[in-house]
Amino acid sequence: VLNFTDNWAEARMTTNATYKSFSSAVINAEVGLHVGLYGINVTLKNPVVQFNETINYNEMFSWHDLTEEEYEGALEKGLPNPILYIVEKFTLNSPCGLIFQYRYSGRFASATLTAFCSWMLSNILFSMPVILYAGYMMIVTAGFIFFSMASFSTIMNVPQCVFSIGTDSVSTEYSHSFWLALATLCTIIGTVVVMLNFLMPERIKTAFSVCVDGCEDEDVFYREGYLNSVFLDGA
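The structure corresponding to this sequence follows.
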């Protein structure tokens, strides 16, 4: 799920800014930038009606669409100046180079965030009498998630581009999806399962109902038998 969210990094401010090009109108609104692994989402909101309209913009731009033509299309649509300013920072010709930082870090993060497959496999293994391997796969799942976080966090190793709108400035910070990935319990679950499998294998098998049916079959198979002497004498 985290692979498709747009909240890996964000920047948010409430400021006074020029509303649109060729206009001196100034608005007070909340400007938001939400960065995902596949693109950005720029918002401009204010619940108060200003200039006979409710300001509520939510524009999506994927990394493949952030070209000069796409930016020119945004200009032709007449999007507000704060949105155009942020989008321009992510174009190919921008001196900030944000599109290269976020696009490549997001691409590698998305490639390693294939944890869903290993997580499904670990759940399948938990339902089978191979608890140790299920624990190993849970640790592998955590490894994929941590590698994706490490890949995305490389954007913080370069000088941050500051967004200045009106009299306020802001830069991007880690957001919900990044911290949710960090808060995963896969590492804890996998480590505990592996440790318990070595320390108390019988108890963990009982906890996961492993070998219950097999043990019952063995009890039936090895149960003490009785010979019918009457039947044997008749034979």
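The two ends are 71 Å apart (CA to CA).
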